[in-house]
Every structure is written in C-alpha cells, then in structure tokens.
Amino acid sequence: MGEKKKRILSGVQPSGKLHIGNYFGAIRQHLRLMSEGHECFYFIATYHSLTSLSDAGQVAAYTDEVARGYLALGLDPDKACFFRQTDVPEVTELAWILSCVTPMPLLQRCVSYKDKVAQGIAPNHGLFAYPVLQAADILIYKPHFVPVGQDQKQHIEVTQDIQTKFNNTFEKVFHYPEPYILDEVAVVPGIDGRKMSKSYNNTINLFDSQKDVKKAIMAIVTDSTPLEDPKDPDKDNVMALMRLFADKAEIAEWEGRYRAGGTGYGHAKKRLLEQFDETFGTAREKYRDLENDPDYVNDVLAAGAKKARAVAQATMDEVRAATGLVTAASVRK
Ligand code: ADP
Ligand code: TRP
User: Fold this and answer.
1) Nearest CA-CA partner of 176 in 155, 192, 159, 193
2) Known catalytic residue: 6?
3) Within this chain, do residues 225 and 171 fall inside the same structural domain, yes or no?
4) Has 79 been annotated as catalytic?
C-alpha cells in the first residue's frame, strides 16, 4: 500500500453475531489500517443483509451488534468514518445506474451467488445483483483500497470491471479501486474444524455471555487420545485456535506439552478460555456499556453518515451530469 496515506473503504454485513473468525480475518486489520492513519470509511452493509435476512428484528439487532462491536473493539470515530449504509441512500441510486452498464455474464460468473444458492438461500434478485450494490458502495467514495477477505476478491474484480465500463461509456467519474486482501490469517477454524462461519453453527462469538463462550470452547471437537498419551499439536482444533491468541513462547510451550503427553485437551481448552478473556475482556465490557448507551452509538453513526453522505452526494452530482440524468435541483443551479 506504500507509505502515503490512502483512502480505504470496507463494508461489513450485519448478518449474524460477530465471531472470532470475523475479528482475526477482518476487523483487526480494519482497525490497524485506521491506526496507521489512512482515511478510512467503514460501513455496516444493512441493504446487503436483506439478501439473506427477512426478519426485521434480526436486521436491527445485528446492525446494533456490529456498531457496538466495532466501537468496543477500538474503532475511533475521530479517526474512521463509521456509518450505516442505509444512511447514504444515494448508493441505491448509483446501483441502478451501474446495473445499466453491467453485462449479465459478469454477474452470472459470481461464485458467491452460486455458493449462497447452494447453501439454501433463496435466489432473489437482490442476491444476484449484490455485486452491483457493492460496486456502488465502493465507487461512490472513490477509495484507493478495499480491504476484504479472499472470499470477496471476485466482487472487487466485478467492481473494477463496472468502473471501467462506466468510465468508457460515459465520463471518467470513478477511480479504479484495488483490493487489499486480508490473508494474514487465512482461515480461522470453527469449533468443529471446518471454516468458522455462522452458516455452519461452529462459531465462538465475541459478545456472547461468558456461559455461552465457555460452552462453545468446551465443545471444540478433539480426538479421543487419552490424557496421558502424546498428541499431535498440528492436528488439533484447540491448538489451532490457541495459535491466534498466544505469543510464540506460549505456543511452543503448549506444543511441547502436547508432544510430551500428560496434558489433556481439557487443559488446553481451559487456557484458551483464559486467552479469549485476556484478549477480549476489555472489549466485552465496553460492549456492555454501549448496550446501555444507544444514544452515543447513534450519534457516532449519524456523524459518520453526514460525512460519508457529503462525499457520496458530490460523486452523484458528477454521475448525474455524466449520464444526462437531470433533477429539479440541478436544473435550478
Ligand atoms: P460468515 O462466514 O460467518 O458468514 P462473513 O462472511 O459475514 O462470515 O464474514 C465477514 C468477513 O469476516 C469475511 O469477508 C472474512 O474476511 C472474515 N471471516 C469470516 N469468517 C472467517 C474465518 N473463519 N476465517 C477468517 N476470516 C473470516
Ligand atoms: N460483501 C461484503 C462481505 O460479505 C460486504 C460488503 C458490502 C463490502 N459492500 C462492501 C465489502 C463494499 C467491501 C466493500 O464481506
């Protein structure tokens, strides 16, 4: 990314509870880019969540969870512009305009759509058009980089294609955004050893009650090697998760204990729970405080939206002029 400060943009879908896969795979890097002093725009992708959720209570609750979660984990609203997608409705207007320069085969190739249908999500038009709305989200803020997990790489490529198509068809309004792939932690395993994902029900959630976190950690699947026997630290889910939390010295110590025998998986789970508390204890307390202060959270999101919307509206003025779309306001100017 280089030394110079860049404009960074990313979105997070409020489609479930935040889990440690989200943290190590995405949130931590979002916060790091913020502390490095880049100009960050992070938003809660509320419109996108409607492609998979249809319960209003859930949409609202998960939106609140992402808002509180990011703030509790260290998002500083003075350093990053943090807002709800819904508070910048211009993106839906842009999504329509971009739809009209998006070739069907570009969307038909998207694996995320095919994966979601394979998982049993009903294939509505929103799900199919999802990458166009994502392109609008990105292009409207003219960012240099879009930090996303590997799974989102194709959506950024679609955005790049749409950017080029629009600029060639009309005028050069949009910048060419680059993905910034967050593969530092390739895949965080879930408690059953598959990729941690809310769709597999194998998550350790960041802000669940202590009882539920403990329950999830104790339920991590292990083999049946007896306590006294040596164990392979490279073939165990508890150890795989511990590697995310512990420093090098502690990882080496636990690998030694595994290989020597006499340490049970239960011991490792107990330590993992402590590590979880050491890492997230403060954020979890802050999260509870924010639950009791919804006005603060709303104020942060409203201020973020005001700033983001000004950027979006300026881009839309250019887009409308470039496409010949006239509004009463623009005629009067
Ligand atoms: P889920 O798989 O639970 O539905 P999302 O797709 O909503 O999670 O995740 C949002 C982002 O969090 C992803 O784009 C990815 O960057 C990150 N992420 C989610 N699960 C993991 C995981 N198990 N390992 C690493 N990163 C993850
Ligand atoms: N599709 C992204 C995900 O599921 C969320 C998202 C929506 C996004 N709009 C975006 C990410 C714009 C980056 C930029 O993770």
Assistant:
1) 159
2) no
3) no
4) no
